[in-house]
Design brief:
Layout lengths: L1 E6 L9 E5 L8 E11 L1 H8 L8 E2 L4 E8 L11 E4 L10 E5 L4 E2 L6 H4 L5 H12 L7 E4 L5 H13 L2 E6 L2 H9 L4 E4 L5 H8 L5 E6 L6 H6 L1 E9 L11 H6 L4 E3 L10 H16 L7 E6 L3 H9 L6 E5 L1
Parallel strand pairs: 9-10, 9-12, 10-11, 12-13, 13-14, 15-16
Antiparallel strand pairs: 1-2, 1-4, 3-5, 3-7, 3-16, 5-6, 6-8
Helix pairs in contact: 3-4, 3-9
Length: about 325
Amino acid sequence: MAKAIRFYETGGADVLKLETVEVGDPGPGQARVRHSYIAVNFIDIYFRTGHYPLELPNGLGSDAVGVVEAVGPDVTDIRVGDRVGYLLGPQGAYSDVRVMPASVLIPLPDGVSDRVASTLIMKGMTAQYLFRQVYPLKGGETILYHAAAGGVGLIACQWARALGVNMIGTVSTDEKAELAKANGCSHVIVTARENIVDRVMEITDGKKVPVVFDSVGKSTLDASLSCLQVRGTLVSNGTTSGPVEIDSRTLAAKGSLWVTRPAMVHYATPRSHMLAMANEVFDMVMAGKIASEPKQTFALEDAAQAHLALENRQTSGATVLVP
C-alpha cells in the first residue's frame, strides 16, 4: 500500500485528497520506485484546474526521484537499489511509492544527491532543451527571459552565465530580483514597477533581442513580441497567466517573427535523447556551473498548500514534496 494524492474533479487546490492506494509488484518492463522527493511544477496546476485535460479520477505529478525497490521481467538497464529520477510517464508522482515504466527512469550519478536531483529532472532539463535545442545559444547573445527567479529560471540564469549569454530577466519583486542577479542574470526588470519594453530598449540601446523565453503567457505576450528584433523568435514555453492567442498579422507587423510552443516530450524522446539531456545537466552541476536546491519544502499531505504558494507567486526557485 502507498499514500498518494488523488483528485476526482478539477478545480482549486482543495480538490487534492491524500489517500491510501494499492501499488503491487512491477510487471514486464516496469519498476517500483520509492520516492525521496517529488517536484511540484506549474504544469501540475494546469492538470488540476483542467487547463490540460486528464481522465478522472487520477493522480498528479510527473517528476520525482527515489530508489528502485523492485523490477519486473525484461528490465535490463535498471536494477534494484538504483537511484533514479523521471519526468515522463503517467501522472501520479505525488505518492510515496509507485510503479513506473522502466524506460522513463533516469539513473542519478553519485555526485548528485536526491535533494539536488529533485530540482533538476524537470526544471534542469527544461533549461537544457530551451537553451540547447529549441533556440541553441552560442554565447554573446542578449536574451529576454521571463520569470527569472522561478524553478527553471534560476537554473537558466546560471546556464546563461556559463554560456556567456547576456540575460535580461523579469521578476515580480525586488527580493526575486536579487536572487536572479545572484544566480547570474545580467539585468533584472521588476515588473511591478518597471515597463518591460522600455527597459529592454534601454538595456539593448534600441536593438531589442533575438529571442524571448516566455513561460508567463497572456500578460507578457505583447511585451515579448515588442522586444523582439526583426525575424526574432518567441519561445512560448508556458502560460501561467493565461493562454496565448496570436494573430499572424501581428507577427508580420512586428518584424516577420517566429513563434514556437515546445513540449518536453518532443525533445526528451527517444530514451537516448532523454539520457543525453540529463547527462548534460548533471555534468553542469558536477562541474560547479549550476547549483540547485529546493527553496520550499512541503510534506506530501500538504500538496494543496504547495499549489497555493506557487499560484500566488509566494515561491522562488524549486518547490518539492517530501513523502
